């Protein structure tokens, strides 16, 4: 008999976890992980006792904020992550969490996932910024992912595993949710003149930006490739998680989002070109031959402009009086400011 998807975390206990995972679990002590963690989902750690079961697992369910659930549902974010672990994780050339359970009602987007707890690996604080040696490791891993699905990702969009960047859902939804977040950040944060100027006319440019990321050969894009979604093992092996935004489009999208939003402005200025060239070399080393450097650089710049979407839309589901959430949004805005000027992004809008 199929395990029923729980309606809330109150329905998750040792018995449900044992039935869902097939593990011999006797007790489960469940608590939410931190504040400001899991903007699109509610994330919990279940500490377990039992026979031959892990000491803990991670449980993901829909976000506690209704605005975040609405956005995640419309953009099929929960569906995308469940499908990734069901169909793509086994092919992924980098380390990802083991999935013990993942089911979703695709009509309602009610879902639950039970994943390996990655606690113990070295984490990166995005607000502090990733160091260059780790950034190089991340770019090497990203090139492997992109090369794996280079020229194969249109089929993933066709079967609903990903959403193509040109999907009409983006120009239909993003301007609306951006406008809602924009009013909030204008009201609650001190924004620079550059961000204020761009933000006021940003919504009308979103559709064209997203469509431009489909030009040329497409691949599987992680969609949220940033420092907070990666870890490193004690041997400095790269670990990637959070696959709710996987898409079909230009790989330059992931690279630009990572470099412009996960490195400090000083390091991004210093290493941006090096990391771009390193990614291209990584693609070649992993068998990619049809590389149009000029197109990919233009898409890189376009993504750097698009990155204003992330902190603004995410803020809709955040308490900006909570220090971690506020710091993340303010950091992303300050890094956007650097990219806006150094990459001459005003010419793209």
Q: If you had to describe this structure to a student in words, what would you say it looks like?
A:
The chain has 349 residues and is α+β, with helices and mostly antiparallel strands. The protein folds into two domains: 9-116, Phosphorylase Kinase, domain 1; 122-348, Alpha-Beta Complex (Aminoglycoside 3'-phosphotransferase, Chain: A, domain 2). It is 46% helix and 16% strand. Strands 1-2-3-5-4 form a five-stranded antiparallel sheet, with helices on both faces. A three-stranded antiparallel sheet has the order 6-9-10, with helices on one face. A hairpin with a 4-residue loop joins strand 2 (41-51) and strand 3 (56-62). The longest helix is centred in the last third of the chain and has 21 residues, at 265-285.
Ordered list of secondary-structure elements with their pairings:
Elements: H1 14-21, E1 24-32, E2 41-51, E3 56-62, H2 66-74, H3 77-88, E4 99-105, E5 110-116, E6 122-123, H4 132-148, H5 153-158, E7 163-164, H6 169-188, H7 193-200, H8 206-212, E8 219-221, E9 230-232, E10 238-240, E11 247-249, H9 252-262, H10 265-285, H11 293-306, H12 309-314, H13 323-342
Parallel strand pairs: 7-11
Antiparallel strand pairs: 1-2, 2-3, 3-5, 4-5, 6-9, 8-11, 9-10
The level-1 CATH class of the largest domain? Alpha Beta
CATH fold descriptor of the largest domain: Aminoglycoside 3'-phosphotransferase, Chain: A, domain 2
What is the CATH-assigned architecture of the largest domain? Answer: Alpha-Beta Complex
- Look at the helices and sheets and give the structural class: alpha+beta
Task: Give the domain tally.
Answer: 2
Strand content: 15-25%
């Amino acid at each position: 008999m199929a395990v029923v998807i729980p309606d809330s975390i109150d329905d998750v206990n040792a018995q449900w976890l044992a039935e869902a995972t097939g593990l011999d679990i006797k007790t489960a002590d469940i608590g939410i992980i931190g504040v400001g963690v899991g903007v699109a989902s509610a994330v919990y750690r279940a500490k377990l006792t039992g026979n031959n079961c892990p000491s803990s697992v991670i449980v993901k369910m829909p976000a506690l904020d209704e605005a975040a659930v609405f956005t995640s549902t419309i953009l099929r974010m929960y569906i995308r992550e469940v499908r990734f672990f069901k169909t793509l994780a086994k092919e992924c050339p980098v380390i990802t969490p083991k999935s013990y359970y993942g089911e979703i009602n695709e009509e309602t987007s009610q879902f639950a996932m039970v994943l390996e707890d990655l606690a113990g690996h070295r984490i990166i604080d995005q607000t502090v910024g990733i160091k260059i040696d780790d950034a190089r490791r991340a770019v090497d891993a990203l090139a492997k992912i992109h090369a794996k699905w280079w020229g194969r990702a249109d089929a993933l969009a066709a079967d609903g595993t990903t959403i193509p960047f040109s999907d009409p859902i983006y120009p239909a939804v993003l301007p609306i949710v951006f406008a809602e977040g924009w009013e909030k950040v204008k009201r609650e944060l001190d924004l620079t003149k550059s961000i204020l100027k761009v933000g006021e006319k940003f919504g009308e440019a979103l559709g064209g930006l997203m469509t431009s990321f489909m030009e040329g050969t497409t691949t599987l894009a992680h969609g949220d490739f940033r420092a907070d979604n990666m870890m490193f093992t004690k041997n400095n092996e790269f670990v990637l998680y959070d696959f709710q935004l996987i898409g079909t489009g230009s790989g330059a999208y992931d690279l630009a989002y990572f470099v412009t939003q996960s490195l400090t402005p000083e390091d991004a200025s210093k290493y941006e070109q090096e990391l771009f060239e390193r990614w291209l070399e990584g693609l070649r080393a992993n068998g990619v031959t049809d590389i149009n450097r000029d197109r990919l650089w233009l898409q890189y710049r376009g993504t750097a402009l698009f990155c204003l979407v992330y902190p603004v839309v995410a803020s809709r589901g955040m308490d900006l009086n909570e220090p971690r959430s506020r710091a993340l949004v303010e950091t992303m805005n300050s890094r956007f400011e650097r990219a806006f000027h150094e990459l001459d992004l005003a010419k793209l809008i």
